[in-house]
Write a structure and sequence with these properties.
Two copies of one chain form a homodimer. The first copy, chain A, has 150 residues and is an alpha+beta fold. The first copy, chain A, is built from four helices and six strands, in the order βααβββαβαβ. Chain A has helices at residues 22-30, 38-49, 101-115, 130-135, and strands at residues 8-11, 54-61, 64-75, 83-92, 120-125, 139-148. In chain A, strands 1-2-3-4-5 form a five-stranded mixed β-sheet. In chain A, a hairpin with a 7-residue loop joins strand 3 and strand 4 (83-92). The longest helix of chain A is centred in the C-terminal third of the chain and has 15 residues, at 101-115. Chain A is globular. At the A-B interface, helix 1, helix 2, strand 3, strand 4 and helix 3 of A face helix 1, helix 2, strand 3, strand 4 and helix 3 of B.
């Protein structure tokens, strides 16, 4: 009865990164991501740990990682030092996409932004994900432009 | 002959922030921004200085600040630790919007992202600014969603 289960949401932990990582496997469902070496994991996690403005959360069901999402807090000079939360890399494993894990993670990220005194939270998504984010309380706002660097 | 002039692009300096700041006045053209107190300026600038992933540039013409733009570098766990540049708060004073200052600033920000090993640069803009960013080499990508926090 997946639909009645409420996932546990917790912060990313160093141990989530190493060999045969479910966290990395789920990121790989979003965009191709190989398992980093142990040294690379150390480097990435230390960098993450040293940045108070970057938060990565993990969703678990039945002691299994089923989703992840992140937010970073931008400090602006606008409005006398306002802050904006940027949500990135929201993904739920394809096996559990129907049980509300995504919405619970997004709500947690909004709470993190609120606690960090952000006045707004933004994210970029594909057109077919707009209805999901509208259900989470978001409104279509602007257009995302991209340039690739070789 | 404004059209022949090439602006000087430089990093934001602490002295740009204090009383009767042209930098703050130009931000105010983008979105309402009051001049911060001297103490607030210290706090904001120190925070900025301590973040190696945040870059604010200033454009000058005839020793006058005519524009500003910023980029911050996001460190992802995707693709074994990829980086993305996020451009924010691009503004040229209304008196000088015809002389190519915006494009020169955006090109400089792309160079900063390249030097920081970003694989892409993204930004959000209003529909009427899409042609400007296409001229800068960007392509429409996704949709920006927003939620305001009270």
């Amino acid at each position: 009865m997946d639909s009645l289960k409420i996932p546990i949401i917790r912060d990313l932990d160093r141990s989530d990164l190493y060999s045969t990582s479910d966290f990395i496997a789920i990121l790989n469902e979003l965009s191709e991501t190989q398992q980093p070496s142990s040294g690379e994991c150390d480097k990435l996690y230390n960098q993450y740990l040293n940045n108070d403005d970057h938060h990565i959360i993990i969703a678990e069901l039945d002691n299994e990682i089923v989703g992840t999402a992140s937010i970073f807090i931008e400090h602006k000079f606008l409005h006398g030092g306002s802050r904006v939360g940027h949500i990135e890399d929201v993904v739920v494993t394809s096996k559990r996409r129907t049980v509300g894990v995504g919405k619970i993670m997004v709500k947690r990220l909004i709470k993190i932004a609120e606690d960090a005194n952000c006045y707004k939270v933004i994210l970029d998504c594909k057109e077919n994900n707009i209805p999901f984010y509208v259900k989470c309380g978001f409104m279509p706002s602007q257009y995302c432009m991209r340039i690739d660097i070789d």
